[in-house]
Amino acid sequence: VASRPDTDLWAIRPLLSVKYLIQREGGDSFVGEDGLTKMTGYNYLHNSSGFDVYENSNFIGYGFSYDAYMTYEECEQKDEPDRAKMMLRAILLDSEQIEKYGYMFDDLETYSMKEGNSGSLAYAELERECEKRNATAAESFEAGNNSFKAVVNREKDTLVFFSVPYDEGWTAYVNGEKTEVEKVNVGFMAVAVGEGTSEIVFKYETPGLSLGGVITVI
After folding, report:
1. Per-block average pLDDT, block size 10, for the chain (218 residues)?
2. Residue of 173, 126, 117 whose CA lies nearest to 12
3. How many angstroms separate the Cα of 60 from the Cα of each of 21, 68, 103, 183, 189?
4. Cβ pair 94, 61 in contact under 8 A
5. Checking DSSP bridges between strand 140-143 and strand 147-154, what pairing results, if any?
6. What CA–CA distance (Å, rounded) separates 212 from 196?
7. For the chain, how far is it from start to end, CA to CA, in angstroms?
């Protein structure tokens, strides 16, 4: 997947689980005249077939969880470049989801007041948030043609976030039981899991495909 948001929107890449930055040798889209990447947190690895490869030190693996939630009002109070930064700290839920899942999390203000936390959007603070999110990433992740599977281990009930765009064609199963797919962080997906180890399976079918097939046969 090619990910090319503006370089001042660095927080989008860890949120989308982007691990590597690939820069065409001699290109200038990500590298400045000083030879350094325009985004903090990328370490040069090697050159391969005319491309320089950098690794994102703030990488967050698929299937991670949060300790806090924020409301749409809190998110919209921030400028657009800061909203992705906020989503590194707290999952964005609507009012109905907060009523349903809010007990699983601290609200943003409570979380920010806890020892070792901060409401700051400074790079160093968000770097620590990336570390926290990555510590909860799935123990394993496997993608198929129209599906993906992840195994997670949680100490309490929570939501597991996947930076896969939400679509009504997705169906999710947790430990074999069908579960609701929640649209969170504006347009991505999450499912609720309980304490302990959970196997999460997502399957995709184009909406209306089965019905269309039946009509075609008829």
Report:
1. 71 93 78 80 91 93 97 95 94 98 97 90 95 98 95 98 96 98 97 98 82 63
2. 126
3. 14, 17, 24, 19, 16
4. no
5. antiparallel
6. 40
7. 39
